[in-house]
Write a structure and sequence with these properties.
Strand content: 15-25%
Shape: globular
CATH architecture of the largest domain: 3-Layer(aba) Sandwich
Radius of gyration: 23 Å
CATH class of the largest domain: Alpha Beta
CATH superfamily of the largest domain: Alkaline Phosphatase, subunit A
Number of domains: 2
Helix content: 25-40%
Number of helices: 17
Distance between the termini: 28 Å
Number of strands: 15
Largest sheet: 8 strands, mixed
Strand order of the largest sheet: 11-10-12-1-13-14-2-15
Length: 524
């Protein structure tokens, strides 16, 4: 470690969903008892960081989310998400338009001569975070125009859109494809059934049986079915699978096209469809003509899946630069955030950097999350404490997804419990770092738990928010001053600064640590 830093070790605690909002009403962060966080924030240098919109490479005002936040953290700049490149392809014509995409043309050339169908799987939502219904409609129309049969498997949102707005979204989508002669609804189900990372195995099994084997109840009126689910208290993401009236399952020579906007969505479902045994399901894998994804998946599938667009990738990354400097790194995360921590934060690097270790612990199944708001925080904390005692790492990063994961349930009480569980873990970590004379940095990644109630409807809010997030630097110089008006892109240059490493030109973020001559002007 560089002697310039004066820091050994440095621990970065990433707090997903830990947004800043002054009002207490519906604010799980403010309502929770957080004596450790409050003490650290009150006695050590702190600032607020932009974690949404253009600060993350997103459209102006768009709420932040895990993938964009972690990319900005690791790159030291706003990183253009795949969704931006995809939007250009879908809005433009000519050689760069989606209709002329070489991978899509390959899909058509494979399936059409065999008489197979394309199973189009993706979210019917206007959110543009995990999916976008316009892309589903365009692809269905394009394939149908080419004479290819299209079975649409409509995945309902409920998290990045209003919890029970799916009726309108689905009806709009069905209207959009009504002129596509060969496109038809195959199934409808909520995203918790194998589309989200860290889903429940039983829910995945029901979606697999529905799509692969047409083993689910049928409905002739899908929007009426959604309304029935709402009356039972189910939000869109938890809607059980129902089949379109003519659907007959996946057959030989069919192909699958996953319309995903993130590399960690839809993986479990596509893995089940291509190799049921890989997901603990009993059934023969179909003889598919091909498997395709809109965005390259972060983890490999049992069979080759060809992407139309690459996932987030950038160089240099914070992890790579620390490795080049000879520093030893440890990253600790839960399985629900594994892709963000091990892939997006590191620029999409497939292999570990020299001196780098990543440890992943399992997140409880989705069906247990509201009963276990602490998730795997205790396990992560114990692993971190052991690492601190051994003193073998210079930089340690631990991700706590609790406030975001529980916040997306819409349950205020359990989200408060989740925040309090994290605070207890921070207390143990801070105590051990004090003994070591190191530094603990607390950094929110995107907003969620600070706004648990929809301000317009008074109903539970399950969406992420356009909120600033905290940055607290506990350890080192108490008189240090942090710049105001920063963003998540400034975190990597700040960490490099602390280690005495110069930030490369590609990182257009700035160090949040102000020179001594600027302290009086800004204030402590």
């Amino acid at each position: 470690m560089s002697a310039k830093s004066g820091v050994k070790p440095l621990v970065l605690a990433l707090l997903d969903g830990w947004g800043i909002r002054g009002e207490r009403d519906g604010n799980a962060i403010a309502l929770a008892r957080t004596p450790i966080y409050d003490r650290l924030a009150a006695t050590w240098p702190r600032t607020e960081l932009a974690a949404y919109g253009e600060a993350l490479g997103l459209p102006p005002g768009q709420p932040g989310h895990m993938q964009a936040a972690y990319a900005a953290l690791g790159a030291g700049r706003a990183v253009e998400p795949p969704a931006t490149r995809i939007a250009r392809a879908f809005s433009g014509g000519g050689a760069g338009g989606i209709e002329n995409h070489p991978v899509l043309r390959e899909l058509i050339a494979r399936v059409r001569p065999l008489g197979g169908a394309v199973h189009l799987i993706g979210m019917v939502t206007p959110s543009r975070i995990a999916g976008y219904q316009h892309y589903m409609a365009v692809l269905a129309a394009l394939l149908s125009h080419e004479g290819v049969k299209v079975w649409v498997h409509a995945v309902m949102d409920g998290q990045d859109a209003q919890p029970q707005a799916g009726i309108g979204h689905l009806q709009e989508f069905l209207d959009d494809i009504s002129g596509a002669e060969h496109a038809e609804l195959g199934s409808v189900f909520g995203r918790s059934h194998g589309f989200d990372e860290g889903g429940d195995p039983a829910a995945l099994a029901t979606a697999w049986r529905a799509i692969a084997q047409a083993d689910a109840p049928y409905t002739e009126y899908p929007t009426a079915y959604l309304d029935e689910c709402y009356r039972k208290g189910l939000d869109d993401d938890r809607v059980p699978p129902r089949l379109g009236s003519a659907y007959r399952g996946i057959r030989q020579d069919d192909a699958v096209l996953l319309v995903n906007l993130q590399p960690d969505h839809g993986h479990a479902l596509i893995a089940a469809l291509t190799d049921p045994a890989s997901q603990g399901l009993a059934g023969k894998p179909p003889a598919l003509a091909g498997v395709y994804t809109l965005v390259k998946l972060a983890n490999p599938l049992p069979v080759e899946a060809k992407p139309l667009f690459e996932a987030i990738s950038f160089r240099p990354s914070l992890a790579g630069l620390l490795s080049e400097a000879g520093l030893r790194q440890l990253t600790l995360c839960e399985s629900i955030a594994e892709t963000a921590m091990s892939n997006m934060l590191r620029g999409g690097a497939a292999a570990l950097f020299p001196g780098e270790t990543i440890l992943v612990t399992d997140t409880p199944p989705a069906s247990q999350i509201e009963r276990k708001p602490e998730l795997a925080a205790a396990t992560l904390t114990n692993e971190l404490l052991d690492a601190l005692k051994k003193g073998e790492h210079d930089m340690m990063t631990v991700g706590f997804p609790n406030a975001a994961v529980l916040g997306r349930t819409g349950n205020l009480k359990t989200t408060v419990n989740a925040v309090e569980a994290i605070d207890k873990c921070l207390g143990k970590i801070a105590a051990q770092i004090d003994k070591k004379g190191g530094m603990l940095i607390l950094c929110g990644t995107y907003g969620k738990a600070e706004r648990m109630t929809d301000p317009d409807r008074g109903t539970p809010n399950r969406r992420t928010t356009a909120a600033a997030v905290p940055f607290v630097m506990a350890g080192g110089d108490r008189k240090a001053t942090l710049a105001r008006g920063g963003s998540l892109a400034d975190v990597a240059p700040t960490l490099l600064h602390l280690f005495g490493i110069g930030a490369p030109a590609e990182m257009n973020g700035r160090s949040l640590l102000l020179p001594a001559e600027q302290r009086d002007a800004v204030g402590a």
